[in-house]
Amino acid sequence: MGQERSKYDFYIGLALAISSSVFIGGSFILKKKGLLRLARKGSTRAGQGGHAYLKEWLWWAGLLSMGVGEAANFAAYAFAPATLVTPLGALSVLVSAVLSSYFLSERLNLHGKLGCILSILGSTTMVIHAPQEEEIDSLEDMAVKLVDPGFVVFATFVVIIALILIFVVGPRHGQSNILVYIIICSVIGALSVSCVKGLGITIKELFAGNPVLKNPLSWILLLSLVACVSTQINYLNKALDIFNTSLVTPIYYVFFTTSVLTCSAILFREWEHMASSDVIGTLGGFITIIVGIFLLHAFKDVNISLASLAISIRKEERSPPMSNGMTAHVTYELLGSSTSVNMDELEVGVPFDNISRRNGTVAPL
Fold first, then answer.
1. pLDDT tens per residue across span 214-235
2. What DSSP designation does 322 have?
3. Mean of the pLDDT values across residues 108-112?
4. Count of the separate structural domains present in the chain
């Protein structure tokens, strides 16, 4: 009966994690459209410290969608291990990429489609090799985990890094470096997941009739979660306002998932109960997801499809080889631009770095 119940909980957690990804992926699009509308109106942008988005209904719709997704994600952590639930957030990246192509005019090329397939395959692999976490049935067990020396050192390190980024690095480089705000969200997110896991246990005990509301740990976890989520929302809004959604989403996923997997391994010791084949499968699935996300977004400004690839191959076959064995002329077209880039010119210093990733625009060469 215990094994059947555990399997039943696993599938509930899996279904909740998938539905969470759908809502969260859609929330990025709604929030971005709301922020873009405010930018067109001339309001002070979130990246510059403005809070005009609080009056934009599209932003609130995105926040509501994210709230539903996070609620489903919250419930998923109560039924399934964090090492399973968190990596499935890659599906939100796929949802965001597909919806961006329809609502934000961000095209999905051949690399993007291959990236989607790889991300789905990686997620499936991680589901198959998902670990079993240590049984934590009460807040007392959770309290013992939270005061473990390994987790205390990890949490202290995370808080110090977050404070340095918020008060020292952020004001200087946050507007120009996409990693600053995303790393803040990611490291704080590792602690928020721990709070979510603890609150999931609290709710289970509450429904079982235990007096958990009298336990100070319940309120500490709740207040810590509110503080962590508020910080994440604030800095995620800044990142979305300044940089392209299709860049923020995958980079945030990679850093956030890595932080959560590290925290989960320290706090819940999920990896100690895994066979070597499951460890390899889990890591391989995660790396596959990262590669898929990289393909999905690294080449998003290159107009490439199966048809253009076939034409390029035929051109290369017809072109006479140069003395060094390279073809004489190969061009690639940037999405949203009528200008082709000559690869011969790139070798002698065309300023390809002038392609701006901020808000998805392409700066003139």
1. 888 889 988 998 999 889 888 9
2. -
3. 75
4. 2
Q: Which residues 6+ apart lie within 8 Å of 131 measured at CB? A: 81, 83, 84, 270, 271, 273, 274, 278, 282
Quote the domain boundaries for residue 23. 2-298
> CA-CA distance, 2 to 107, in Å (whole number)?
48
DSSP 302: B
Q: Is residue 365 part of a domain?
A: no
Alpha helices by DSSP H, 107-215: 110-128, 139-146, 149-164, 170-173, 178-207
Distances (CA, A) of 235 to 62, 83, 152, 181, 228: 16, 24, 25, 6, 11
* Greatest C-alpha distance within the chain: 81
CA 235 to chain centre: 14
In the three-class reduction of DSSP (H, G, I as helix; E, B as strand; rest coil), residue 126 is classed as helix
For residue 350, give the 3-state DSSP assignment: coil
- Please check the confidence at residue 133 and state whether its pLDDT lies above 60: no
- The helix or strand, by DSSP H or E, that contains position 81, with its residue range, turns out to be none
In this predicted structure, the answer to whether residue 338 has a pLDDT above a threshold of 50 is no
Looking at the fold, whether 270 and 323 belong to one and the same domain comes out as no
Q: Which amino acid is at 230?
A: S
Bigger pLDDT: 324 vs 356? 324
Residue 84 near residue 126, CB atoms below 8 Å: yes
Q: What is the percent of the chain with per-residue pLDDT over 70, rounded to a whole number?
A: 71
pLDDT tens-digit readout, 147-165: 888 889 999 999 999 999 9
Phi, psi of 137 (to 5 degrees): -105, -10
